Amino acid sequence: MGNFTNVTEIPGQGASKDQLSYMMTRYHLAKQYAKDKDVLEIACGSGTGLGYMAEEAKSIMGGDIDDNLVNIASDSYVGDSKVKVQRIDAQALPYEDKKYDLVLLFEALYYIPDVSKFISEVKRVIRPGGVLIITSVNCQWHGFNKSPFSHKYFAATELLDMFKVESKSEVLMGYHDLPSGNNRTVSFIRQSAVKLGLIPKTMKSKELLKRIFYGKLTPIPKVIYDGLGKIETLVTFNQKKDDVENYKFLYLIAHFD
Questions:
Q1: Measured distance CA(137)–CA(230) in Å, rounded
Q2: Nearest in space to 62 (alpha carbons), one of 22, 35, 33, 93
Q3: What is the radius of gyration, based on Cα positions, of the chain?
Q4: Cβ atoms of 256 and 131 closer than 8 Å
Q5: What DSSP string describes 23-61?
């Protein structure tokens, strides 16, 4: 197992406006489904979104396989009776059957060695009427760059196929990336760096590049909050019509009967 602390957003790190928008968009989406629900976030990382969702949820359980990240998240919620954090493996969840109403996996599906085991575990712990939300970088995006420790990335059609038998599913897309002006130059440099394998492998190294190209960065807080970043408008994936390669993120929403 790799050190996921190096590839995860940590409180105190500098973040660009786009990066904060990505964070806020996925947790704002989840928050809409969290009201009065028991929520499980798998691969919660440093836990920056747990407290934000707790404003609406009945209870929040955050879990991650990296001990360092679990410790960071746990420290952020000391004394919070609604939020709990523990070490978990997405392929063998330590929870009873039909335990959660909402299950989340953000930017981590590609790190799971056996996705079929993860899917089986989600089906086991989610309640009838429950919802699963998965977000992932779009591997068909023109600026796609594979993350260290990743196993497999899934295209929009593959995400839909995962749960089409057991649930009603849809895929949304976000961050339509058609840069202009200076942003076009930055995008060109990024795409060239991806092709040459020059993109840094850790969040700390990427922070330096972001300062160069985007200027002043905002420190990531322990708990995100409304107004921290722009909420991106999401559009429904349509295989026949959409220019999928221009969208950076995919959002799978699966409703279980």
A1: 18
A2: 93
A3: 18
A4: yes
A5: HHHHHHHHHHHHTT-EEEEET-TT-TTHHHHHTT-SEEE
Q: Which residues contact 136 (CB under 8 A, 6 or more apart)?
A: 107, 109, 110, 153, 154, 159, 249, 250, 252
Please, how many CA atoms are within 13 Å of residue 137, restricted to the half-sphere of its CB? 17
pTM summary value: 0.87
Which CATH class name applies to 4-256? alpha beta
Dist CA 60 CA 66 (whole Å): 18
In the chain, where are the structural domains located?
4-256
47 has pLDDT over 90? yes
pLDDT in tens, 185-229: 455 445 554 454 545 555 555 555 554 455 689 999 999 999 999
Residue 227 DSSP class: T
Instruction: Give the residue from 168, 208, 165, 244 showing the smallest Cα distance to 14.
Output: 208
